[in-house]
Amino acid sequence: MIAPSFPVAGVWRRIAAAIYDGFLMFAVLFVASLLPALLLNADRLAMSPATDSVVHELNTPLQGWGYTLYLLALIFAFYGWFWRKSGQTLGMQAWRLKLESIDGTAVSWKQVAIRLPVAALAFFLFGAGYWWAWLDREGRSWQDIASGSRVVQLPKEQK
């Protein structure tokens, strides 16, 4: 195993960056859902006169497997693009974290495809996959181990 050039990131920093990215992801998914909903209901909204009544039923095309796959594809593209481009999402930049392969290179699409579902599982099991980093000798979480990658702590920039 190649020694990391930067220290492995701590659990709390990873969680803070994940929360930061969670807010950004919420906004991305909100807009990604709002636009098709408005487009698919534009004819109905344009033709209905302004009234004081509440519209109880609109077309609900944003549901089911197709919609779920659409949102999952957006999540995959979002994280994949940032991780492949610079190794950092906006939250990771704020907390000076970087995702890289064990050899220090950029992660592959295959690593992204493994890392995302394992990270979701690690999070939804009350963070057990993240807490695992405290038990692992190399400070790796479940998603690090499964995808052959690591999150490192970058140094502060010199002024």
- Number of helices, counting only DSSP H or I runs of 4 residues or more: 7
What is the first-to-last residue Cα distance? 33 Å
Largest pleated sheet: 2 strands, antiparallel
Low-confidence stretches: none
Q: How much helicity do the residues have?
A: 55-70%
Count the E strands.
2
- This entry's quaternary arrangement is single chain
- Gyration radius, rounded: 20 Å
Descriptive overview:
This protein is mostly helical and 159 residues long. It has one domain (11-43, 62-153). Helices cover 56% and strands 6% of the residues. It is built from 7 helices and 2 strands; from the N terminus they run ααααβαααβ. The chain has helices at residues 11-40, 42-47, 64-85, 90-94, 109-124, 128-131, 142-147, and strands spanning 97-101, 149-153. A two-stranded antiparallel ribbon has the order 1-2. The protein is elongated, with a radius of gyration of 20 Å. The two termini are 33 Å apart. The model has no long low-confidence stretch (mean pLDDT 87).
Provide the descriptors you would attach to this structure in a database record.
2 strands, 56% helix
Brief characterization of the structure:
Helices cover 56% and strands 6% of the residues.
Strand and helix map with partners:
Layout: H1 11-40, H2 42-47, H3 64-85, H4 90-94, E1 97-101, H5 109-124, H6 128-131, H7 142-147, E2 149-153
Antiparallel strand pairs: 1-2
Helix pairs in contact: 1-3, 3-5
